[in-house]
TrEMBL record:
CDD domains named among the record's database cross-references: Anticodon_Ia_Leu_BEm, LeuRS_core
Gene that encodes it: leuS
Keywords associated with the record: Aminoacyl-tRNA synthetase, ATP-binding, Ligase, Nucleotide-binding, Protein biosynthesis
InterPro entries assigned to the protein according to its UniProt record, in alphabetical order: aa-tRNA-synth_I_CS, aa-tRNA-synth_Ia, Leu-tRNA-ligase, Leu_tRNA-synth_edit, M/V/L/I-tRNA-synth_anticd-bd, Methionyl/Leucyl_tRNA_Synth, Rossmann-like_a/b/a_fold, tRNAsynth_Ia_anticodon-bd
Official protein name in the record: Leucine--tRNA ligase
Amino acid sequence: MTTTGEERERWFDHTEIEPRWQRTWDEADVFRIDDDETDPEYVLAMFPYTSGSLHMGHVRNYTITDAYARFERMRGESVLHPMGWDSFGLPAENAAEERDTNPRDWTMQCIDSMRDQLTEMGFGYDWDRELATCEPEYYQWNQWLFKQFREEGLVERQAAELNWCPSCETVLADEQVEGEEELCWRCDTPIEAREMDQWFFTITDYAEELLESLDDLDGWPNNVREMQRNWIGKQAGASVAFEVGEHGAVDIFTTRLDTIHGATFFSLAPGHPVAQEIAEDNDEVAEYIEMAEEADEDELDVTSGVFTGEYATNPATGEEIPVYVADYVLTDVGTGALYAVPAHDERDHEFAEAHDIDIVQVVEPTDDADADPEDIDVQEAAYPEDGVLVNSGEFDGLASAEARDRFVEEFDGEHRTEYNLRDWGISRQRYWGTPIPMIHCDDCGYVEVPDEDLPVELPEFVHTTGNPLDAAEEWKQTTCPDCGADAVRETDTMDTFVDSSWYFMRYTSPGMEAAPFDAERASDWMPVDQYVGGIEHAVMHLLYARFFTKVLDDLDMVNGVREPFTNLTNQGMVLGEDGNKMSKSLGNGVSPQRIIEEYGADTARLFIMEAAQPEKEFAWSPEGVQSAHSFLQNVYTLVSEYADGEAGTDADPENGDDIADYVAREIDATAANATAEFEDFRFNHALQAVRELVSLLRRYQEATTPDADTFERGLATAAKLLAPVAPHAAEEMWAELGHDDLIAEAEWPAAEAPADYEMERQLIENTREDIRDIVDTVGIEDPQTITLAVAPEWKHRVLDLARNADGNVVGTVMQDEELREQGEAAADFAKELAGRAQSLDEQLPPEREQAALERAAWLVEREFGADVIVQSPEEADPDLVGKAGPGRPAIDIEE
Ligand SMILES: [Zn+2]
Ligand SMILES: [Zn+2]
């Protein structure tokens, strides 16, 4: 669409209309939802971390939920679409240090600024439900829930080797350590290992349910479910005991019990109690353990280890095998002890080669395996696949799976399941988080802060290199709730993932003073129907939130809600114009603020939604932004011209009713199509349909004086279909069309495609394509008249028979008495159809085909500048009719 200067005069001024409609929505409480609503549609975006400014990723994330929430609201749903702030965390402490302020003031300033930016984007939230996790009104419930969890036996204090970031001076969860180099997720510093006492949530108690119920989360992307499955890492195996010298039986866990006859050495983790016992009388072992404990995880390779001088007895063979202490055995995985089978495990193989230990093959490929037993040389490399047993005494020839089962009983073992999932360490040695509500008394040990003393509020921020809570002496010193003696507060705060594990429940009753949320309402309103956010949360946030939800249900706080999010969408990235991730160093970032100022929020929203489906990434495109901008302005112009009585031309073609019928059908079809696409989150397809409708309306008013009802309904439909994505411009159009109410609250257009719409659309498309072919091939410069002749009834009958004939089309057709009357012609046509029996689509009956062509004739007239005549088989020249088939009218073009 090109734009003339005259049209431009009618453009709206986004800097005027956007704030005006934002105020109007706010005053009309459009986005507020009453507490007494029953089971509203719950649409939620992952709440933002309070960095102070929105980036394009946020804009995309929130545009998706806002568009969907607005769509559902117009469809008559009551919609819960809240917003809040993930406002605890280290960056606020760092910002406070840099700016010589405190985390609270800094965070509150960030929240104010981000709230303004969200409002400027036109996002419709129920701000009455706003929450910030750094407010005592919120985090007191983290403390209360901590105590509830503790009562349920889900809180433990464990000494553990933790990931320590020396730069952030904080402990990191495993999930916060990135890549093989094991770098801090925030600052990319290599992490170190430290042993500390920490508070843990025993999420492992829920490992099996967290894994199992993934199968039922049909509304989640498969990749996220797979990432969680891998993270939980269930391993079915067995445990058996090896006697280790005078130290007694040592349990091992293995998933490959079938290889037990090939065990040639035994390994203990440095932290294993038996290793520690041996170290008491063995300096070499003691030295190794000390060295291993101090080393960074990546400093030692898999061959690092020391022989203890002790031997373990293999229960399968009765053989004595040497016992090593080796760092590659992890203390907290399995039992911290293992028997090693170098022939069938790569890690064991490497270790055996380095320490010159025997390698004995006990499994070889089965006959139907890809590998040839002759090609396997376990002295060279481990063969880790299943197969059949060899060198296993009486068990030779047994299949691996069978052996695993049988050996459990044979060697007094137990079937056992292990998970990679570890308990969730929630202690953070930082200030800006929820204080853990515990007090340490020298006599009583750890004592809970009584409910009546909650919340334990954060003291004033102290500038220090360590943990500011540790330095807050006055705050730290307290008395023991049990014995009244002097005692100290726990100075660790909670991982901020605790905050985000239940915030979606708090939105149901944000002001609640007696409980974290209203149990009855949360039970009714949860789960979230549509949850949208980044893929980076696939494991941590989404797993913890699932864990919390299950525990809260077990605490009878959300009746029967065991999963928090029914449908999940991970939006793709918005890349820079150069196709790279937006970054400061590349200078390819686009500021939402600048786009709002220059083009308006609607343009940004429309461009983002048209660019790709939500899950796909796309590159920023100034042309795309321009196109979205002028499209909105041009639709508005069309509406405004109509409102001013300036639509249409003087032309008054006699087929005016047909044209109106055609347009009316397209309006209905567009509404139906766009509705289905909105439902499926394919907003770009919906918007493409709206663009096509607008283009049709434009052609309509160029061709004739449009029928007022039809044309206005077309404009209103376009405005409504645009309203979820470009809400300000849509309100402006709606008002221009004379409505006093808000389009945000208007009824979504009735969405049913007209009968046989698809067949009709296909007919028109094919016919226009055929005309173009003829004009091109014959080289017709200036067509005067185009005649379209519809095929006679009997050809439709042949088609029907052909579609239902089993193979013998011609035979079936010629058995029909009426068709036999058509003689050769029927046989020939039947032969023609038989040739393409696979693709005989159903077609409109002749009179409906004729009506459809008459309705669409005006489009052909406009395209080719010729008169169009549609003829019935009776009216048309018999020679011409002879060339017509069902769904393929005969075409005659006169120059
Ligand atoms: Zn760090
Ligand atoms: Zn005490």
